[in-house]
Every structure is written in C-alpha cells, then in structure tokens.
Amino acid sequence: MLAVDYKGDIYPCLRYMESSLGDSVPPIIIGNVKDGFMPTEKEKQCVKCLKQITRLS
After folding, report:
1. Are 5 and 11 in contact (CB under 8 A)?
2. CA 4 to CA 31: how far, in whole Å?
3. From CA 57, how far away is CA 50, in angstroms rounded?
4. Distance between alpha carbon 9 and the CA centroid of its chain, in Å?
5. Neighbouring residues of 34: CB distance < 8 A, sequence distance ≥ 6
6. pTM of the prediction?
7. Quick one: average pLDDT of 33-55?
8. Sorting pLDDT into bands at 50, 70 and 90, what band is 54?
9. Whose CA is closest to 39, among 14, 17, 15, 10?
10. Class of residue 3 by CB neighbours under 10 A (exposed 0-12, middle 13-18, buried 19+)
C-alpha cells in the first residue's frame, strides 16, 4: 500500500513514513509526486530490496 505525505514524498507503506518510525529510524522514500517513482539509484536499490521480502522472510 503506497503512502504519500504532505511534501509529496512517496513511501512503500504507511509504516515506513516519518510519522510512523519516529526520529530514531530514517524513513524509506521511494520517490515523489514531482519526479515519480524511483528517480535515483538509491531509491531503485531500496525497492529492489523491498521486493525480496516475503511472508516467509
């Protein structure tokens, strides 16, 4: 489930937003409404890692 904040940042889920994680863990941003999904290599690698997560891992 994608989530978008007031700044236009796109997250893979509500649980990865700043408001859910607090100050001790950095949020996972996978794009923004201006530039789209995965505009940088860092974001592409993040999504690649997230795709490997299954219910068994």
Report:
1. yes
2. 9
3. 11
4. 8
5. 8
6. 0.81
7. 90
8. confident
9. 10
10. middle
Number of continuous H segments (helices) and E segments (strands) in the chain: 2, 4
Distance CA 20, CA 45 (A): 22
Give dist(CA 5, CA 14) in Å, integer.
Answer: 9
C-alpha–C-alpha distance, residues 18 and 23, integer Å: 7
User: Could you report the per-residue pLDDT of 7-30, keeping only the tens digit for each?
Assistant: 999 999 999 998 898 888 999 999
Q: Are 27 and 43 in contact (CB under 8 A)?
A: no
Name which residue leads in pLDDT, 55 or 35. 35
First to last CA, the chain: 19
Task: Sketch the domain layout of the chain as residue ranges.
Answer: 3-51
